[in-house]
Amino acid sequence: MAMLRETVVHLAIAHGSEDIVEELVKIIDDNKDRFKNVLQYKNDQGDTPLHVAASTGSLSTCVCIAEADPSMGNERNKEGKSPLFLAALLGRTEIFFHLHSICESHLDTSYYRKEDDLAYRILLLHGELATCVDENGILPIHLLAEKPSAFRSGCHLGWAIVSEYDIHPQEEKETPILSAAENGIKEMVIGILHKFPMAIHDETRDGKNIVLLAANALHLAAELEERKSGLIPGAALQMQWEIKWYEHIMNSMPQGFLHLSNNAGKTPGEIFMEKHKTLVKKGGKWLIETSNACSIVAGLFVTVAFNMSTTVPGDVDDNGYPRLEKELAFNMFAISSYVSFYSSLLAVIMFLAILTSGYKESSFRSTLPMKLLLALTAFYVSIASTAICFSAAHFFILR
Hints:
CATH architecture of the largest domain: Alpha Horseshoe
Oligomer: single chain
Radius of gyration: 31 Å
Order of helices and strands: HHHHHHHHHHHHHHHHH
Distance between the termini: 52 Å
Structural class: mainly alpha
Shape: flat
CATH class of the largest domain: Mainly Alpha
Low-confidence stretches: 155-165, 167-171
CATH topology of the largest domain: Serine Threonine Protein Phosphatase 5, Tetratricopeptide repeat
Strand content: under 5%
Number of domains: 3
């Protein structure tokens, strides 16, 4: 048993030992009288082995356990979640459908939701609330259409991003399908169209339908807005974030939207390049200044490290062997001086590579940030190893 009072089956699944799990399940299945209810055993969090398998994403393990005991699909943990609910929540599509196929005859009507789903329970008691409006004429479905984070297709880049881009207060109420399209909630758009196909004709007061609203989201993602949060250090890293945000929106839309033009005749890509010219220049300038400053210091470390690496503490004996070679501090000095020299040399090379790079929009996606990360990492390693080398050499002086 572990700290969570887990069985060996729990532990084997958690560690990804699929072969061991299959052997254990086979042993349990062959000795049902002796190992009765082992697969139903729950840890302190209420998770059965199938819960753990659905969470870790092992399809073969899930199938193995479910086939041994199909009733496991209905088991709930302390949060009221079934294994199928966890698979769906974590986006394990293949696992969900396999478990549903195996456990279908044993599933009740609530495997797809948590037992503490308050909104669902209220609707069961008072179904009329689904069509009630508040004092502003807002339906519950309107509020749902304004919350992309409640859906799998919603933004997963953090609260600061969501608060800045997905949710804008509307001066005039739109229909739920228009709000969902504007916020990029494709599950809700599909669900509404399935129930009410005529909703495809809904338009805003400006005459925009759901296609135009969805396409407009990509144009908006291409815009550059000033940030006051200061969460992104440096113009280069901010540019990297801008590219990732634009790609996130772009990948969530049909490819045909990439070439649609706005009223000014500009595509999202053209707007992105135009709006980010200043940021690209700032990012390039920031990288040049940072690389210049760090490369000078890294160059000094190369010189110092070279001198250290060619110095033998305590000199050598008549046979050419270091007098202090059996000392631990001597070995530390030799190794750290070697690491210091080559890490500082690598840092200088990477900083020079940044200085000679072309500063295009695409370069800020991964090339330049990776060069900067490698250069700074090597630089800090050289500083640390130089400090160790100095301490090891100073040990002999103090002694």
